[in-house]
Design goal:
640 residues; alpha+beta; four-stranded antiparallel β-sheet; 18 helices; elongated
């Protein structure tokens, strides 16, 4: 469009009449549309907004809007309000002071707007009507809300000059409600319009530029509005009447057609076609070429699909995006867990295989942590981790591909190497009666506690710890392992700890059962339901005992190294191999062997009791469940 572009936005969402006050109007959306039209990068209009103005102000401003314009000017008038028809079928636009039974004097008639449009000198005049239409009839004439509002009967070519162009787009052409006298008929519910909101969104995003030529024509805009409005409200399809000299462009968009450089001529034409269906038809062919083993062919198709994702309308962009997802970087495995590694041992290596077509194998690996090392190999990667510093490590390996990136989580735990223990002095040997001196070989001490981990403020492992051997907690002193010191916890203290644990678990079970029964009583459950609930609770109370013990032991041993009873009596369970914390497998295995047999009442308890007696015959006082799990129970002195 040449000349000056003017827009007048009339929005009324407040009405003094009680009947109109119950109806919904998108006044706020019209204000948003004004900002879009005013944007020099989109509409470039000089915009005036009239919101909730009385009828005499609107009449004057509408007439002024079309008067005193130049031939090259382009005008856009937008009404966002209620459209009412009187008993003669004449259409009026409601204002803040409109009375449904006095439309001629309290509303802006469509004939008045049409006359102002025809008397203006501007070459093009466009009218948007986001109105829900109703009928205002005399009492006793009956409700006539159903049917067609016949909006275009008020806007015809009559009166326009031969060189003038005009267009009318309306959100709906249906009668949705009616008045009988001054009362709104209660048998019709007005639907909220989405016309103005969709209009503003289409211009802002450029989605209304269907041919991706960087401009939004009035015909493109109508096609976009029709599709989008029908998706949200099938009962309100927009309508149009367009009598323009050539195509009129309302706005600019940032879309541009993909040129398809490097593609075969026919496919290149399809990718750059102004026809939306032709461009959509090019996507399957580009997807096939994307899978080619010839990397140059696949790369050209990838660039064309990226252009469609970046510049085309939403439906085509989504299809192109799905095609690119098929050549995104995919690895096997998707994550790496190196497990426990001894400090300063040779770096462990893991191979990562790249999956998918040839283009998916072209990726650049970027370790996001300095302790992760990666080397590229044919169709794969070799990943290793540094073992110099102890700690629990969690990081990521970024794989940047042609069609998108992926991130591979990497985990490792570096534990300190075993440190030779200093010799522990033993009591002076006593001379035997025959003059021989008995020799006692000292046993190495057992270290307690988990390997060191530096934790961030969020509680996750995030950094290195100081190198060197790990010392036990300075507040805990471990009795050295010698024949006279009895480092290992005996059967008696372990039995006492287990009695404390049984008491706590029993109390928890009783409280849980009482809470369930209380809730059922509060909810006034029927007697049959209460009986069924009582039977279920009784079965769970006896048969669920072993399961409850299993979870109790597993959670406490894995995270604290001791159950509550053991902590009270200053004993704990450690790894029999190195004195460290228990792994999940060890904690779960020990808890399962000890707890699950007790699911069987009496018999299960007897089995566990007798297998625990095996500790009496073992040099390290290990019960059968300790031997199976590779654990040992040791004594720990308190803080000093």
């Amino acid at each position: 469009m040449n000349g000056v572009r003017h827009a007048l936005i009339v929005a009324t969402d407040f009405y003094q009449d009680d009947g109109l006050a119950h109806l919904k109007s998108p006044g706020q959306d019209a204000v948003v549309l004004a900002d879009v039209l005013r944007d020099p990068q989109i509409g470039g209009f000089e915009v005036e907004v009239l919101r909730n103005e009385p009828v005499h102000v609107l009449r004057r401003r509408v007439e002024d809007f079309f008067s005193d314009r130049h031939r090259e000017d382009s005008l856009l008038l937008h009404f966002s309000c209620h459209g009412l028809k009187n008993d003669s079928g004449e259409l009026h636009f409601a204002t803040v002071d409109t009375l449904p039974q006095r439309l001629s004097s309290t509303a802006v008639s469509a004939d008045f707007v049409h006359r102002c449009m025809t008397e203006g000198r501007a070459r093009n005049a466009i009218l948007f009507l986001d109105c829900c239409y109703g009928g205002a009839y005399m009492t006793g004439m009956g409700t006539r809300a159903a049917g067609n509002a016949n909006v275009f009967d008020s806007f015809t070519a009559e009166g326009f000059g031969s060189g003038q162009g005009w267009a009318v787009l309306t959100a709906s052409n249906a009668m949705e409600y009616s008045f009988e006298g001054t009362e709104l008929a209660d048998d019709h519910q007005v639907r909220a319009s989405v016309f103005t909101r969709v209009l503003a969104e289409g211009l802002t995003s450029g989605e209304a530029d269907l041919d991706a030529d960087g401009r939004v024509s009035i015909n493109e805009l109508y096609d976009y509005l029709y599709d989008q409005v029908r998706q949200e409200n099938p009962h309100q399809p927009p309508s149009r009447r367009i009598e323009l000299q050539g195509d009129v462009y309302l706005a600019h968009s940032k879309r541009s057609r993909t040129d398809g450089e490097g593609l075969p001529e026919a496919l290149r034409f399809a990718v750059a076609s102004p026809d939306v269906f032709t461009r959509r038809g090019s996507v399957p062919e580009l997807r096939d070429r994307l899978q080619s083993s010839d990397r140059e062919t696949a790369e050209v198709a990838c660039q064309a699909l990226r252009g469609l994702v970046r510049n085309d309308i939403r439906s085509i962009a989504e299809e192109a995006s799905h095609a690119l997802d098929e050549v995104a970087v995919r690895s096997s495995p998707r994550s790496l867990d190196f497990g426990r590694i001894v400090q300063n041992s040779p770096a462990p290596h893991r191979r990562v295989q790249l999956l998918g077509p040839a283009l998916a194998h072209e990726c650049v690996p970027y370790p996001l942590e300095p302790w992760i090392h990666v080397a590229e190999e044919p169709d794969g990667l070799d990943v290793s981790v540094d073992t110099a510093r102890p700690g629990r490590w969690e990081g990521s390996l970024s794989l940047e591909g042609r069609a998108g990136d992926s991130v591979m989580p990497v985990r490792a735990e570096v534990v300190p190497a075993p440190v030779p223990a200093e010799p522990v002095p033993s009591p002076a040997p006593r001379s035997a009666g025959d003059g021989r001196v008995p020799v006692t070989a000292p046993t190495p001490p057992v270290s307690l506690g988990p390997p060191p981990v530096r934790r961030s403020a969020g509680g996750t492992a995030s950094g290195p710890v100081a190198p060197g051997p790990r010392a036990p907690d300075p507040g805990l002193r471990v009795t050295p392992v010698t024949p006279t010191s009895r480092l290992f916890a005996g059967f008696g203290v372990r039995l006492a700890a287990r009695f404390i644990d049984y008491t706590l678990v029993l109390l928890f079970a009783v409280v849980a059962v009482f809470a369930v029964v209380l809730v059922a009583a509060v909810l006034a459950a029927p007697d049959s339901s209460m009986d069924t609930l009582a039977d279920i609770l009784l079965v769970l109370f006896f048969l669920g005992w072993g399961v409850l013990l299993f979870f109790y032991d597993w959670i406490f041993l894995r995270h604290l190294g001791a159950t509550f009873g053991k902590m009270l009596l200053r004993i704990r369970v450690v790894n029999a191999a190195d004195g460290g914390e228990l792994s999940h497998r060890q904690a779960a295995g020990r808890a399962a062997v000890f707890g699950l047999p007790q699911t069987i009442p009496l018999l299960g308890q007897l089995v566990v009791f007798f297998e625990s007696l095996a500790a009496q015959t073992d040099s390290r006082e290990q019960a059968l469940h300790d031997r199976w799990a590779g654990t040992v129970v040791v004594r720990v002195q308190g803080r000093e």
